[in-house]
Structures
1.
Amino acid sequence: MSVQRSTVIFAWLLLLPAVLYVTVIVAYPLVDTFILSFTDASLKKTTNWVGWINYEKIFNSTFAEVIIRTFVWTFFSVSIKMIIGVFGASMLNSAVPGRALFRVLTMPPWIVPMAIGIFMWGWMYNGQFGMISGLLQRFGFADSPVAFLAQGSTAFWATIITDVWIGVPLVTLYMLAAMQSIPQDLYEAAWTDGAGRFYRFRRITLPLLIPSLITMSMLSLIATFNSFDIIWILTRGGPSGETTTMIIDTYHTAIGSKKYGEGAARAVLICIFLSIFCLAYFRVTSRLSSGDNR
Amino acid sequence: MSTQPAMINRYRWYELLGIYAGIFAFLTFILAPFVEGFLVSLKPLSQLFSSPYRFIPQNGSFEAYRTMWVSVPGFARYIFNSFFISTIVTAVVLMLVVPAAYAFARFKFKGSGQLLGAFLAVNMFSGAVLLIPLFRLMRTFGVLNTYFAIIVPGVAFLIPSAIWLLRTYMMRIPRELDEAAFVDGASHFYTLRRVILPIAMPGITVVAITTFIGSYAQQFIYALTFNSKTEYAPLPVGLFAYFGRQEVIWNELMAASFVGIAPAMIVIFFLQRYLVSGLTAGAVKQ
C-alpha cells in the first residue's frame, strides 16, 4: 500500500465519526423532511402520499404574508446588528483607557442563555409596569402605558430589538478582530499624508472591512432567519399572528397542531431560502477573492 | 519615526469625549436589561406591580434570592441539568471534532473541500427546520423525555463551528513537526496523539469553552420540544416554573436567572482573553 493511499485512509478514519453523526442527525432528517412534505403525516397511524397538496395549501393560506414578514423582520434585524456592531467595534478599537474592560462588558447578551435575556426584555416591554413604557411616560413621550407586546406594530419592532441585542456582541467582537487585522502601516502612511481620523476610517477601515462585513452579514442572516426563541418567548407569534415568522409558523403547524406533513412542507421552503442565501454568499466571496488575485 | 504609532493614537480632548460617549451609549444598550433585571430581583412584588414606574428599588432586599428556592424547590436540579447536558455535549463534540479538524487541517484528498463545505452547511439548519424528523427519530430510538433528547441534537449543531475553529488553529502548527515525527518512523496516529494534540491544547481549550457556552445558551428549543419531564429540564425551560397561573413572579424569576448565569459569568471573567481570540481567530484569518 502506498504512503499516499494509507494517508487518505487515515484521513477518512479520522473524519468517519463526525461524518456518521452528522449524517444520522442532520442529513437523514433533511431527506425525511423532504419526503414527509409530500404526505399527510400526523398523529394518525396511517400516512398517505398526497403529492403537492401541502404546498398548494401553503400558497392558499396566509403564508405569503408570513414569508414577506420574515424577510422584512430579518432584513431590519441584520442591518441594525451590522450598524451597531461596526459602531461598537470602532469605539472599542480606539486606544483609550479601560477598553479591555469594555470588551468584556460587550459579551453578556451572547454568553447568557438566550431565554434569560429574553425574560428581561419581556419585563421591560411590559405595558403597565415595565421600564420602557414607564420612562416614556416619565419623560412625556407617551400619555398612557404602552403595551409593546400587545400591539402588532410595536411587537414587531420589540422582537427585532431583542434579536439585535442578542446578536450584537458577536458582530462587534468579530468586526473588532477584523479591524485589528488591518495593517497599522496603512494608517500611519495616511496619517503622515495628513489624513484625519474620520477620513482614515472612511477610506481605509471601511473598504478593508467589506469582506468581513459580508461574511458576518451572511452568518447573521442565517441565524436571524432561523430565530425561534425570541419570538416564541415574547409573543408566540402574536398578537394575531403579527410577529409570526416562517420558523414560528412551522413550529405551530408541526409541533403545535401535529400536522407533520404540512409542517415539513414549510420547513422545505425554509431550506430552499437558506440554500439561496448560501449560494449567493459563495458567489460574492469567490468574486471578492478572485478580485484579490488579479 | 518611532514616535509615530504613539502620535497617531493620541486623541484630542473632544475626540476622547466622543469615544467615551459612544462607548457609554453602546454599553447602555448592552447592559440595561441586566441592570434592570438585577434591580427587579431586589424589589418586592407589590412594588413591581405598581405604577408609576420606579427604576430604583425602595427598601430593596435580597429576599427573592431566598424565596426562589421555596417557590421552585427543584431549581437546583435545573442548574445541574444545564451543567450536565453542556458537559456531555462538549465532551462528545471534542471527541468527534478533534480528529476531524486534524484531517481537514493536514490532508488534502478528493472531496475534502466539499466535505468541509457540507459540515459548515449544517449551521444552516440549526433551527426548527429539522424538528419534525428529529422528533420522529428520537421517538423511534425511545429517547424522548431523557437527557439524550437534548444532548443528541445539541451536539450536531455545535460541530460545524468547532471544526472550523480548530482546523484554523491546527493549520498554524508547522507542518515540519508532523513530517519530522513521520520520518522518525512514527505512525499517523502516534503523530496525532503525541505531537499534535499537546501543541493544539490551547486551541482545543478555546473550542471546549465556546462549545460549552454555546450549549449552555442554546438548549431551549430541543428541551422544549423533545422533553416534557421536569427532572431533565435545563435552566432555560426550568425558569418557566416561575410563570404562575395568574402572574409571573418577576423578582424571583430574575433572581433565579442571576443565580443560574453566575457560573457562566465566572467562567467568562477568567477566560475572556481566550474567548475573544478564539472566537475571532477562526473566523477572520481564513
2.
Amino acid sequence: MIAALGLPVRRRPMLAIGSALLLAFLLAALLAPWIAPFDPIAQDGSIRLHPPSLAHPFGTDNFGRDVLSRVIWGARIDLQIAVLGVLFPFLIGTAVGTLAGFFGGWIDALFMRLIDVILAFPFLVLMLSIIAILGPGLTSFYIAMALVGWVSYARLIRAQILVLKTQDFAVAAQSLGFSRTRIMFRHLLPNALAGSLVFVMSDAVLVLLNGAAISYLGLGVQPPLAEWGVMVAEGQAFITTAWWITLFPGLAIVTLAFGFSLLGDALGDLLGVKE
Amino acid sequence: MTGKWARVGLIALSVSLGLGSIAEAAGVLTIGRREDGTTFDPIATAQNVDFWVFSNVYDVLVRVDKTGTKLEPGLAERWEISEDGLTYTFHLRDAKFSDGSPITAEDAAFTLLRIRDSELSLWSDSYAVIDTAEATDAKTLVVKLKTPSAPFLSTMAMPAVSILSKAGVEAMGEEAHAEKPVASGAFTVEEWRRGDRVILKKNPEFWEADRVSLDGVEWISIPDDNSRMLSVQAGELDAAIFVPFSRVDELKKDANLKVMVEPSTREDHLLLNHEHEPLNDPKVREAIDLAIDKQAIVDTVTFGQAQVANSYIPAGALYHNDNNLLRPHDPEKAKALLAEAGVSDVSLDYVVNAGNEVDEQIAVLLQQQLGQAGITVNLQKMDPSMTWDMLVNGEYDLSVMYWTNDILDPDQKTTFVLGHDVNMNYMTRYENETVKQLVADARLEMDPAKREAMYTEIQELSKADTHWIDLYYSPFINVTRANIENFNQNPLGRFFLEDTVKN
C-alpha cells in the first residue's frame, strides 16, 4: 500500500508551501510572547477602533486591543484546537476500527451499528447538544469532538484492515503463530494508517472551522482570550466601519486551513493514497 | 446554524432578495426591527416587541403623552377620582372598533377584569388592586379599588390593558383573536407572517382617523443589525429601530437618512446575587461599585451615547433623584474595602447573554476593571434562553440586565426591583425590611410631595446597600429615510405612527 518514495517533482511545491504555512503558524504560536508587539488582552480606551497603521499593522479593536497581537496569540489556541480536536477522534477511531475489522462478528456489528446511530444525527447539532450539556468551553469541545468525530476514522481503518487481513503477509504472520495483538498492531495497522493520516489533514481543516464556529456561537473559547472565531464574531458588529477586526483573524483561519489541505494533498500523493 | 462566512454573505443576499418587493405602495411605512412579535393578546406578554405594536393597533383608556411625563385622555375623555381614592369613574368618548361596533364601557370592564383574572395574564398582580369594574351605562365605567393606589391611573395607560372588543374576543375565541384582533387603535392587523412581518392597515373606524396619514405599516424582523441598517441605507426600508451604538455617527453623515436619538427609560444594571458569598457583604458590593468605571463603559459600549446612571429610577422619569450617590471609579479604595471586609481571592461567575453585542462588550470591560481591583471574573457565555432561568435559580454571581419602564409611575419597577416580591427583587435576593415597607407605603401615599420624599429615600437606602449596580441610561436610537417625518418614540417606547408622514 505504501508507494515507493519516487514522487513526481511537480507535486513538491504543495508539500513545501503546506509545511511552510503550518510551520509559520507553529512558530507564531510558540513565540507569541516574544513576537507579539502588545499584550493581547490589554485594553486601551484611547486607541479604540484605529485602522491599520505602523504602530498597529492590523489596527485595533473596539476595546483598543492590538489585532495583530491577538491574531498571533490566537494561533496558540487555534492550533491547539486543530491538533487536539483531531488527535482524540483519531486514537479512538483507530482503536475501534482495528478491533472491529480484525475480529469481525458481534464486535464489528456492535461498533458499526453505533456508528450508524451517531451518523444519523447531523454533525453540528450533535456536537452543539453535547457542548450544551457539558457547558461552554474548549474542554467540552474536545470531548464532543472525541465522542462524535471518531466514526470516520473507525470506518476508514476498518475497511483497510478487512482488506489487509486476507493478504498473504497477514496470513503468513498468522500461520507463523504470532499473537493477535502482534498481527493487529505490528503488521496490519501500520499498513492501514496511510489513508487515515491523509484524512487527518483534511479533518484538521474541518475541526478548525468547527472550533471557530463553536466559539463564534459563544460556546467555545471564552473572552477575553484571543481566538480567531471569537474575533470574527466580535468584529462582526463593526464590519461596516472597522473591517480590520474581522478580516485579519478571518484570513488567519483561511490560511491555516489552506496549509492543512495542501499538506494533506501532498501527503496523499506521497503515501500513494487514492482519493 | 449558519457559519460565519455564509452569514456575512447573507447580509448582501437578504438585502438584495428578501426585501425587494416591499415599500412600493405609497403611504406604507416599512420598519425593520430585531425580532418578530409573539402575540396580539395584550395580557399574554411583557415584551417590548409586542407592546410597541399594541400601541399601533389598540387604544387605551388613558394615554401617556409624547414626552413620556404626563397622562392624557385616550378612549376615556375624562375621569373622576373619589375623595377616598377608591373609586375611579371613566367617561368614554364616542369611538368604534375596527369592525364598526361602538367601544363601550362594557368592553373596558371586560378588559380590566380579564387582565386581573385570566389564566393567560402575566399582569394579574399589577391589577389585583381592582375590586370591581362595572359599566353603569354604555359610556361610563366605574372601577372600585380594594385599597388606594397612587400608580393606578398610570397602569391604565399600559399597553397590556389595551381595550379589547368583548364581542370580538368571545366570538373569535382568545386564540384566534390573538392572531388577528379587532382593533381599537389607529391600525388593524391585515396579516401576520410569523417570524417575518406584521402588516398593518389604516383603521378607518379609529376615532382619530383623520390624524393618521399612513395607509399602512409593516413591522419587518431583520435580526442582524448590519443588514437592517444596510436595508435602510439602500432605501429598501423606510425606517429601522435598534440602531447599534457603533453605527450612529456613520449613519448621521448620510444625507438620505435621519437618525433620531430620543430619551428612553432604559437602564442597564449589573445584578449581584446577594445569596452568594462574599456578595452578601455590603462592603464587597460597594467595592465592586467602586471598581467599575462606568464612564469607560459608556464610552466604549455606547460610543458616548448613554449617561452614567446613579439610581434605578432613570433620569427624566418620575421621582428620579438627581442627587443620588454616584460612587466614583476608585480601584484603590475598592481594594481597601475588600481588605476591610476580610476577603481575598474573590472569584465571581458572570453570566453573559451570548450573541448580544452590548452584553458581551460590557462583560469584557467589567472583567478587566474588576481584575484591577483584584476580583477574578469568570465569564460564562450562555444562550439567552438559558440565562433567565439561571438568574431565577440563583446560579450566578453577576449578570447585566436592563429594564424599560412600562408605565409612568415608578411603582411598577420599584416593586419588581425592591418590593421583595415573588421575583426575589429582580433575582438579586436583596433584603431590607425598611425598604420593603417604604415601597409598600409609597404605593398607598396619594400626596405627590410626600411620595417623592419616600422615593428619594428608597433610592438612597438601596444605593447605600448596593442592591445592584446602576450602569447607564441609554436613549432609543432609530433611523429613517429623509422623506419620513414624525417617526417618534416616547421614553416608554411608544411609537406615534398616527402622526408619521411618508412624503
